[in-house]
């Protein structure tokens, strides 16, 4: 990951931390967009990584699209569709990463930042954090479809049509984040969750996340049928057999990822 310039990669045990570092407010520049996609695609195929923590450097998680750099990216025919495609794929790279992603929202997450959070698997927030869709103030639209995965109909539309921000404590009250903690406790809280995931069978968490993604838009009958089929596949793995032996022998399992 030495080729990253606006994204800081670190590995602690089996947990990778990705810190967006695009000063001053971690706007989603083309560089950051492409590096997030690249890093998450790489992590999907890195056996040493079992979980990811995604956060932002400084006081802002992500202030949204890089409006100042927009003119240099969109200069002629075809540039806007290409830009839109790259942005979509960045969010899908988070959702489709083979490893579960814990989003540590350290500050304001606006527009694209909301889409990143909504594309993650588990969310924790600092009490300085907030989620917002301010695009109405600059004549644009933001990550409303992604935000629909987090917010109710009325709250989402109020956010989109007025630009209101929802603070960390309210996000916790609404059940959108798992915890709302002091800024100095945020990364420890996110790491604890990520390490808990990393302690499980990597084949089970990988297949489990994939299954959750697939069944999200299925009917109850089709979704549960798919889940049953995937359970049967997981049950045939070496890790599943080791987990069952360890349970019977009252010891900690030793997983190999197979």
Cα gyration radius (Å): 19 Å
Rounded to the nearest angstrom, the distance between the terminal CA atoms is 26 Å
Side by side, the strands of the main sheet go 1-2-3-5-7-10
Regions with pLDDT < 50 over 5+ consecutive residues? none
Largest sheet: 6 strands, mixed
Overall mean confidence score, pLDDT: 95
Order of helices and strands, N to C? Answer: EEHEEHHEEHEEHHEHEHHHH
Alpha plus pi helix count: 11
Shape summary: globular
What does this 3D model show about the protein?
With 258 residues, the chain is α/β, with parallel strands linked by helices. 46% of the residues lie in helices and 16% in strands. The protein contains 11 helices and 10 strands. The strands form 2 sheets. The chain has a 6-stranded mixed β-sheet with strand order 1-2-3-5-7-10, with helices on both faces. A 4-stranded mixed β-sheet has the order 4-6-8-9. Strand 1 (7-12) and strand 2 (15-20) form a beta hairpin. The longest helix has 18 residues, at 79-96. It is globular, with a radius of gyration of 19 Å.
């Amino acid at each position: 990951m030495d080729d990253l310039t606006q994204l800081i990669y670190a590995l602690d045990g089996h947990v990778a931390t990705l810190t967006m570092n695009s000063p001053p407010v971690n706007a989603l520049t083309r560089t950051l967009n492409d590096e997030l996609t690249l890093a998450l695609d790489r992590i999907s195929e890195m056996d040493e990584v079992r979980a990811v923590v995604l956060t932002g450097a400084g006081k802002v998680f992500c202030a949204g699209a890089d409006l100042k750099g927009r003119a240099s990216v969109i200069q002629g025919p075809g540039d806007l569709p290409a830009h839109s495609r790259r942005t979509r794929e960045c969010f899908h790279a988070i959702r489709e990463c083979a490893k579960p992603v814990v989003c540590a929202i350290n500050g304001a997450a606006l527009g694209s930042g909301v889409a990143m959070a909504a594309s993650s698997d588990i969310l924790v927030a600092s009490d300085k954090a907030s989620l917002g869709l301010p695009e109405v103030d600059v004549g644009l639209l933001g990550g409303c479809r992604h935000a629909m995965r987090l917010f109710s109909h009325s709250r989402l539309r109020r956010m989109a049509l007025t630009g209101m921000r929802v603070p960390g404590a309210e996000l916790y009250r609404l059940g959108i984040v798992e915890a709302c903690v002091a800024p100095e406790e945020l990364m420890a809280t996110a790491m604890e969750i990520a390490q808990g995931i990393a302690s499980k069978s990597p084949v089970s968490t990988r297949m489990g996340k994939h299954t959750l993604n697939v069944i999200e838009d299925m009917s109850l009958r089709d979704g549960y049928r798919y889940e049953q089929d995937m359970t049967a596949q997981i049950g045939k793995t070496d890790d599943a057999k080791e987990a069952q032996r360890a349970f019977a022998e009252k010891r900690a399992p030793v997983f190999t990822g197979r």
